[in-house]
């Protein structure tokens, strides 16, 4: 099969022929129809993720058709349209027994702990636990974003953030996860303040229903950003999400909260310590929680809202590319890379087939 492959961190990325996978007894092999290109894939390529070993094939948010299932798989068969979360849970550990598959102690992750979906075929571990059937009307290109950014945002806003109608919600970082969070929070009836350094990202956030936007490039100091958020929200946000994952956005998010507010850390923080302003956490009695993906068993509720038109992940798809363009899309995320992939201005999706 064709796959986007590299054997050095930060080095050349190329499309080449590699052996197609065969399923172990509990696995399914999915023919990839579409796969999102996410900032986490860039981090993996740059060597920021200790789970990645070389050579590697990235890609962790995908949709496609079941091609083959292992002997122990009962609930799925070839030909079904499916997706899966980026966390493939074991289904048996203590966390899984509680339903917390997204923090499974024995999880695998395509594109990180094993080869991923920048390829014609990808393996889904413990297929009966992790595969999700797609509604017929949901396009593969839209479904490709559910496994990472949209599903993650859905859980971060509604489950971990407990956002309700009328709440002021701040979203720091309006890339894929952040824009998804804006959309989910708006659908929940919240008033959203979107924060980013990119005017294009803020325009998209406004188009998705953000009531206010803050251009953090004007004064990126966390205290300055937080001060603007306090002014716009009449005393601070009820819930605030750091969807980028940097020391600055994390601090700005915590500092922008109202008393008794709740910070949700969504963006992965790579490398180094992140100083959380714990003095404020104490003085304002803030909740600080993490959010990590969405378990497969929570997909039906989300897909129901998508089918009903109350959530519109299709609006987050920005640019459609071929598998052969994935190396360029990754390079475009580098600070001095070519401006091709427009990270932060809609989701880039590689389309492999229309199966
Ligand atoms: Zn588990
Ligand atoms: Zn991702």
TrEMBL record:
Its EC number is 1.1.1.1. The lineage of its organism: Bacteria, Bacillati, Actinomycetota, Actinomycetes, Propionibacteriales. InterPro entries: ADH-like_C, ADH-like_N, ADH_Zn_CS, ER, GroES-like_sf, NAD(P)-bd_dom_sf, Zn_alcohol_dh. It comes from the Bacteria. Belongs to the zinc-containing alcohol dehydrogenase family. The keyword Lipid biosynthesis does not apply. GO terms for molecular function: alcohol dehydrogenase (NAD+) activity; zinc ion binding. It comes from Actinopolymorpha rutila. Residues 10-342 form the Enoyl reductase (ER) domain. This is Alcohol dehydrogenase. PANTHER family: ALCOHOL DEHYDROGENASE-RELATED, L-THREONINE 3-DEHYDROGENASE. It is an enzyme of class 1 (oxidoreductase). Its cofactor is Zn(2+).
């Amino acid at each position: 099969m064709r796959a986007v492959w590299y054997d050095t961190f930060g080095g050349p990325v190329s499309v080449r022929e590699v052996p197609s996978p065969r399923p172990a007894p509990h696995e399914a092999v999915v023919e990839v129809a579409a796969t999102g290109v996410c900032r986490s894939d860039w981090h993996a390529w740059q060597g920021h993720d200790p789970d990645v070993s070389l050579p590697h094939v990235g890609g962790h948010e995908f949709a496609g058709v079941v091609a083959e299932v292992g002997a122990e798989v009962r609930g799925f068969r070839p030909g079904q349209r499916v997706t899966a979360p980026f966390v493939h849970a074991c289904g048996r550990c203590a966390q899984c027994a509680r339903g917390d598959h997204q923090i499974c102690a024995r999880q695998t992750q395509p594109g990180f702990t094993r080869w991923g979906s920048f390829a014609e075929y990808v393996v889904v571990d413990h297929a009966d636990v992790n595969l999700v059937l797609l509604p017929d009307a949901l396009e593969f290109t839209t479904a490709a974003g559910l496994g990472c950014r949209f599903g993650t945002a859905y859980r971060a806003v509604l489950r971990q953030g407990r956002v309700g109608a009328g709440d002021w919600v701040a979203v720091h970082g309006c890339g894929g996860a952040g824009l998804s969070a804006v959309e989910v929070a708006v659908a929940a009836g919240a008033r959203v303040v979107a924060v980013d350094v990119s005017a294009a990202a803020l325009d998209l956030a406004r188009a998705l229903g953000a009531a206010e936007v803050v251009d953090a490039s004007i004064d990126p100091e966390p205290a300055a950003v937080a001060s603007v958020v306090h002014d716009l929200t009449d005393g601070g946000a009820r819930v605030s999400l750091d969807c980028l994952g940097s020391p600055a956005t994390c601090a700005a998010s915590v500092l922008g909260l109202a008393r008794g507010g709740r910070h949700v850390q969504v963006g992965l923080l790579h490398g180094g310590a992140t100083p959380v302003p714990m003095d404020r956490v104490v003085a304002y009695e803030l909740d600080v929680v993490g959010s990590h993906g969405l378990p497969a068993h929570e997909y039906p509720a989300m897909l129901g809202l998508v089918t009903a038109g109350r959530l519109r992940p299709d609006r987050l798809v920005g640019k459609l590319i071929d598998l052969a363009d994935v190396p360029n899309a990754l390079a475009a995320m580098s600070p001095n890379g070519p401006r091709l992939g427009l990270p932060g201005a809609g989701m880039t999706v590689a389309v492999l087939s229309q199966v």
